[in-house]
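FAQ: What does a ligand-bound record look like?

Like this one, built around MF3:
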Amino acid sequence: MIMIPVRDEKAIECMRKCNKALGVMLDELSEMIRPGITTYQLNLEAEKLISKLGGRPNFKNYEGYPASICASVNDEVVHGIPSQKRVLKEGDIISIDAGIEMNGYHSDAARTFGVGSISPECAQLIKSTRSAFFAAMKAAVSGGRLYDISNAVAAYIEETESDYGIIRELTGHGIGRKLHENPMIPNYHKKTKGPRLSKGNTLAVEPMITMGRPDIEILDDDWTVVTSDGSWAAHYENTILITDGYPEILSLGEKEKELGLE
Ligand code: MF3
Ligand code: CO
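The answer part, i.e. the structure of the complex:
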């Protein structure tokens, strides 16, 4: 059984810092989302904000990824590449996923936003995906088990929105000196318990939920993940620090916090 790395106080301070910047960046970027803007413009603005905050966009060139954020619209689940051709329109939903590196430490977070006014069904998808994350936070405590987090995400969706799909091929992950570290954190039920959670673990928990089936495909750009059935998808992710009690949600900006922790 693997041991999840425990960060010392100095590393934790670094994780707090780069994640706080990410929370601010996502809050500010969200203000720009409106009909008529391109995902290319959002990427440019994110780069400006990240450099103003003193960080580096850690997605850029990650395994060859060509941009600083992922901007995934409607049936795109994750890893949508920003493009001048992708003009947002009223009623779209867009998932923005980003990360910032500072002093060798990494942050990673994602939220799905509505463009202008969206359908009640889309609003519910976004809300439930966010709530699945917060349901999982109750299980993310020192002394608990990693897959308690996975089971909590799955149980929340099954109990509240049984017709939704939970993506299985993509998972959350450890995060720290690298953007992606072990362990993987699935969003579906596991029969085993997984490694024990300890104070000082830093993890990225990220439910990815569809309004239809959970099956996905990758487009010819080799990055964009879309649903096979064309159903729309939402993504919600934060980098967290395990403590003895409720986890510290490191990448939660003020605006995002105001939406509540449920
Ligand atoms: N947040 C994304 C994930 O955990 C990171 C994507 S990095 C990219 O999968 F560079 F590939 F976009
Ligand atoms: Co991630």
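Follow-up question: can I read anything off the structure? Yes, for example: The helical segments are 9-30, 39-52, 120-137, 146-160, 254-257.
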